[in-house]
Structures are given as structure tokens and as C-alpha cells.
Amino acid sequence: MKLRSVTTIILSTVFGLLTYAQQMAPLPIDPKVKYGKLDNGLTYYIRHNAFPKNRAEFYIAQNVGSILENDSQRGLAHFLEHMAFNGSKNFPGKSMLNYLESNGVKFGTDVNAYTSFDETVYNISNVPVNREGIVDSCLLILHDWSNAIALEDKEIDEERGVIREEWRTRTNANMRILEKLIPQIFAGSQYANRMPIGTMDIVMNFPYQTLKDYYHKWYRPDLQGIIIVGDIDADKTEKKLKEIFNTIPKPENAAERIYYTVPDNKEPIIAIAKDKEATGSQVTVYYKHKPMTKELKATIAGIAGIYLKSVTSMMLNDRLKEISEKQNAPFMSAYSYDANFIVSKTMDAFTTMAVSKEGETQKALKALLQETERVNRFGFTESEYERAKANLLSMIESMYKEREKQKNSSYVEEYVSHFTDGGSICGIETDYMLLNKVAASTSIEQVNKYIQDLIGEENVVVTITGPEKDGVAYPSETEVLSLLKEIKNEDIQPYTDKVSNEPLISHEPKAGSIIKTATDKKFGTTIWTLSNGAKVVIKPTTFKDDEILMTGISKGGNLLYEDKDIPNLKIFNNIIDLGGLGSFNNIDLKKVLAGKNVSLSIGLDDRSEIVNGSSTPKDLATLMQLLYLSFTDQHKDTEAIEAWKSKIKDMLKNASANPRAAFKDSLNVALYKENPRKMSLKPEEIDQTDYDRILQIWKERFGDASDFTFTFVGNIDEKELKPLVEKYIASLPSTYSKEKPGTDKIGIRMENYDNHFEKTMQTLTSTVYAAYVGKCKYSLENNIKLNMFDQIMDIVYTATIREEEGGTYGVGTQSVLSKETNTWMFLFGFDTNPEMQEKLQKRAISELEKTINEGPSEKDFNKVKEYMLKSHTENLHENKYWLGAINTYNQYGIDNMSGFEDIVKKQTPESIQKLMKKLFSKAAFIEVSMKGIQE
User: Fold this and answer.
1) Which tens digits make up the pLDDT trace of 62-72?
2) With CB atoms 3.0 to 4.6 Å apart as the test, which of 48, 200, 201, 732 could cross-link to 705 if both were Cys?
3) CA atoms within 13 A on the CB side of 249
């Protein structure tokens, strides 16, 4: 097949008229966004949006990345990104981060950046903009990122080690495999040797001027876009932006920003890559095609392209999933999509991918090619198309209904994409209208023509990856080429779509009743007690217009069961929903739910059984029907469960090849004293599981609804909810028994312990984790203090272990105060160079002891305090936060919401120090380290 552009395919498919492209005008820009371009070439997007209130996002997107580096600059686009946080004209040293964090804007969480092949994007997010000065300062930061990064020699040298350790942390089996594949499949293109992380030889040794040359050549206004969205005065912000950014001169004799192309290939490219630490095998087939131009993406053709890509991928993915859930399936999972050809902006690809069992990559590849060829010959069926269309339109309808309450981040994502990739930003109202029009006017024949035109015999790329291991064979290039030809001549039959017209529930339940109504002023909830003993708690909110969240919780859990059931309990949550519900297996259930925006799952944790669900107000009745079936009629599908068990066994077979798996097991032993319930699932445990026993556990845990409390939060109409509750919850079977939760007989380790071991690995890395454990009575205030200390140590370690030592990409910290056991734990962990391991271990402990003995600095404490107050204010407008707080209160009688702000405000460095001295003086110390060595 001659390579065709996706533009040609879409226009000829949807409009049936190639010359129509000349008649199409760009879609109008959403009038709610201020969009413009300054005389120096800088593009800007500014939008007022009050969700969340008093918050704003400040982004600068650069249409430059590692693709523009020369050979002596490999890795410097990414290095420059790091340097943006290490001093600028108006914010020397670390003053930028100190200023932002003093206002609750946290480095790493709210302040960050990323570098890819073709773009670099910086963000300052969730900024409290209740003071005008903060807006001014964020604009000044964006200005400095644009053209005034300091690039001081000392700061450059200190950052070299940080990036080396980022490389070390990220260079796992998957990254090494990608680094082997990219040069092969992008041969002849600039993309072949421009991985953003670069080479460590250059990173550690480049002259300062080399970085400055890249910066001054490419960071310029004609390649930059400013995106500001939030609760700001858009007119005033636009005026300020123009004043600040118009001072940046328009570049003279600017270097051409080349968009490097990817060569076509007449014959298939076959690339095979293996790694000794790889844990799984994968086959991928790419059908390359030219992408739509930015100009046409801005027209109705862009909307049509989104529609066609979405529905075709949905339909093929459903077919692939159906195959994967059969016993002896040729692959463990598979999916498809149509997007950029891996990392390229100038070439797209219709892509199909399958994860195979060990040694069965050829079998998986053949099945993947067969399914693609089935689509190529026969297309999709009308019933498949109707389901995909219904699902896509349901998603866009939900977005439309939430149009007045979209978060800042969703608009930012849209505008960044518009700047870097083109397209339209006409607003959800226009998107919704146009997508519905495209859906109504596009037939199944047109959809099939679109997908069949993409599947060709030229510009095909096949990649095969997996573990480098004795006895595991992969097909040769010759065998893959033969298979590609063989499939074209194979006898393949059309797909048969089996569709049921049965109702979700075959026999409607006899309704129960609400026997008592009460209110709780603390949370503003209504509480119904039902005739079967269950309780329903209702919290209507106006945070989102098209969302209802639900949980049901009962005391009990897997700790009630003896050790002989541990294998069954470990996989309970993974498989209990795989069988389906009622008379429908999982595949058929998905078909029945087409067009419904609803989800539900059940599971067990240590001390409770839980059901989680969500829906739109329109689909609430369907959610309630699924809830009823989850308690009364789990569909038994032995074939699907056996297929899952077979897949998991194969996945676990090579888990130990990953050094992190060995470390995780060692850490679990250190913390939980070889408690079998806390250990990772092993292949032999799969053989010890019993599906019938799991279903029996389900009946025991969910067969009595009387001690369940169901909580609904969201856009709820109690009058509409009432008959649904009576019919589908009050009718659930009950024995009116009240259980107590199970007890952990082993618990967390309470004595000192250390385990330092060596492990052969491909990228030499040392991993260090240390935990302090002890007893502490749970209270909201104690939990807040421990959490504040955790975040303070994160700041301390960033300044010392990361920045001063240059010894790690980052130190992770975590704290836990258990409500059930009144135990606490503080943990820190990091990766580093093996040569630096001992030094950094000692420094990390020393910095911890120093912070405890001397108390947190006022500066670090205030940063954490501001961040926690800011986050709490944001959380109060989230349905999921209210759901969690109400559940905690119902389950434990603990109110984690009331008084939170007052408790945080009254804390001081001294109050944190006082509790930490008390806790750490009696704490057990647990340390585990793994040092990488060569084979």
C-alpha cells in the first residue's frame, strides 16, 4: 500500500471529498480564553476559571527538546530544565523555590517540569492567588524561565550528580530495551540518538558554555507559549503579561526550528531487544502514517480524526480483551491505539501491542496479526460500532455536563497540547456539538474504510522484547517476515459479535424499607436505617454536576481467616470481579453497560469488606443494580479465572529478575517478620488457590448486608435515591449479625533489625531504606504532627542528600499512624551510586537526628504548614475527600475533618519537636540496603 496521510484518509472517509480540505476554515477559539501572540513571537493563553477557588496554574511550554541538541549537547535539554530551578535573574539560588514553598506551592508536587524529544514544559500549579503579589511573582518566574536562567558554574556542577542519579534510578530493564530499540526503528532520523536523558559522559563533563549555547539558541519567545488558568482577573493578567514579556527582544537571525522527519520503509523493520532484568515479553506492530497537519487539526477534520481514532481503538481493544480472557489465550493482554509513532511528532502509527507468555512471542505476534487482518478484511460489525459510539458519546456528555466546573488542570493540558501539537480549542460546547454531529453522520462503512486504509504492507515496524534468559527463544527477523506474509494468505473468518438482550437483573428484588431517618450536622449528612439493618449515609454536594461516589464498608476482613486461606485471600481482589455478574460474564457485562458511565468493584482489606462505585446521576439506577448483583449473584466463570491464573503465574516467573523485587521482599521481611500475608505473591501460591473457596469467602463476607454502611457523596437527589435504596440495598440478604474486625497476630516489627546485601544488576545502584517504628495512640493531632515531620524531612533531604551531596535523584519519605493498632512508622529511602552508599546512609540519619534534636527550622516548618492548609482548603471541595472522611468516622468514630485547620495553625516547630523526641527515643530502627554489583 502506498503511504497515505491520515488527513487524506479522514477527509475521504468522513466527507467523501478530498477537495473539502480547501473549504474548511479553522474552528473558532473559545471566547473564554484570551489567546494572542506578542510582537516578539511569544504565544499566550489566559483563562479565568474558579475551580478550585483562589487557585491558578502558570505554565511555560517550549517547542524545543532533546531533538535539537548537537552531538556535544546530548542530555543538555534535560539538564537545562533542572537548572531552571537553580537560580535566575530575579530569583538567585534557591530563592524561587523558597518563595513558592513559603506560599504552599510544593517543589515536585506543584512545581515541576519535563523534557521530551520535541518539547520542554514547566509548571507552577495550585498557586494560591488571593494576593496580587503572588500572581506578579509567578509571571516573573515564567519570564525568567523564558530568557533569564542564571546558569551559574557552581550550580551546574552541583546538578551533574543529581542528573546522574536520575539516570541511574530510571535506567531499568524497560529503559535499556527502549535505548536498544530507538536507534533501530528510527534509523536515518535525528530521533535515533536523542534520548532526553542523554549520555552521562557528556552530562558529567560538558563545558559550561555548551549548555549556555543551547539555552541562548533555543529558549526564545517565538518558540514559547505561556498558559495561565485560574481564579485570576484575565484582563489584568493579560496586561501584566504583555508588559513583562514584551521586554524580551525578538530573536534576530534565529536558527530554524527543524521538525525532523522519520523515513518511510518499504520493507518491514524488525527490531528485537532483550535484557537480563526484563520480567515480561511483548510484541508490538506499528503501521506508520503521516499525521494530520496542525492547520487541518484546527478544523472539523481534527474533530473527525479524534472520533475515528477513538471508536476504532475501542472496538479492536474489546476484541483483544475478549481473547485474552479465554483459557490458553495466545497473549496475556493486548491493546491498540493510533497516535505518535513512539516519540516522533512527524510520524504517527496505528499500533497494536500484546504481552506474551515467556517463550511465546511468536504465538502472540501471530494472534495479533490475525486480529488486525480480520479487521482489514471484514471491518467491524454494526453492533460493535454502536457500543463504541455510545461509550465515546457518554464520556463527552459527562465532560459537557461538568463544563461549568472543569478544573484548571484540564484547561492547561488542552492549551499546552494546542501550543505544542496544534488542533482546536473551541470549547467543550462546540466539541460536544461537533462530535455528536460526526457520530450521527459517520456510518460503519466509513469507519471500516478508515481503519482498513491505515493497515498496510509498507511502513510496518515490528518490535519484540523480553528477558535475556537461557532456554527462552525469540523469532528471528526471517521468521517474522515470513509470518507477516503468511497472515495475508491465511483463511480468516469474520468476527461474530454475540449480543444479549437480557436485562441486567432477571428477577427484580422485593423492596425493603427505610425504618429510620436521622441527620448528622457534623458532616451535613442524612442517615437512613434500612429494614435489613444496613445503613445509608447521604452527603449531597455541588462540587461536580455529573458525579456520584459510593462506598459500602463492613467490619470483618481477611484477618478473620486462617493462614491456609492466604493464597486465596491474596488474589481475592484481583479475580472476584473477573467472573461477571448475574447471567453475564465479564465480556458480556461490558457490552450490556455500553453507554453507561458507571463502575463498581468489591474487595477485602485486612479488617473490612468494601464495595466501591461511581456513576453519573443519569446512571445511578444501573449502579444500584450492579451493587445488588455484587452481593447476591456473582457469575462463575472458571475459564476466565484459569486464564488469569495462568497469566499471573507467567508474570511472576521472572519477577525475581528485577532487583527491586528482591529488595521489596527483603523490606517486607524486615518490617513484618516474614508474615506470609505481607509477602509478595509467588507462582507456587497460584497453584494453591481454589476458585470455589474464593466464592465461598465472598458469600461469607457479602452475604450479610446488615452491618454494612453505604455512603453516597455527590450530586444526589434524595427523592430519586430513596426508591433505589429500598429496592436494591434494603432488599439485600441479612442475618443481623455484627462482626468485629480480624486481628493481626504478628504485626509490625518492634525491635532493631538490619539487612545489608549485594545483588548483581545491569545498572549498578544501591538502594537504601530505613524505618523507625513504635507505639503512639492515634489522634488527629498526633497524625498531623507526624505528617508535618515527614514533609519537613522531605525538604531537609532535598537540600542535603540531593542538592548538597548530588547523591540521589530524590529521597522518599513516608509516615503512618495506625488507627487500628496505635503504631507509628517513619520511613525514608533512596537510590544512589554504590560508592556513595555508606556516606549518604550516615548523612541521612545524621540529618534526621539533627532535625529531632534541634527542632525543624522555622522556614521549613512554615513551608509545610502553608502547604497543608492550602491542600486542606482544596480537599474540602472534593467528593472523594468527604467520602473518605465520612467513612473514617463511620468505621472508627474518628473525625479527621473537623478542627483540622485549627490544629495545623496552632502547631510550632517546638510542638513537632516535642512529639518526635518522644517517639524516636523509644523507636525500633530497621534498615535494609541492597548494593549493586557486577556479574
Assistant:
1) 999 999 999 99
2) 732
3) 5
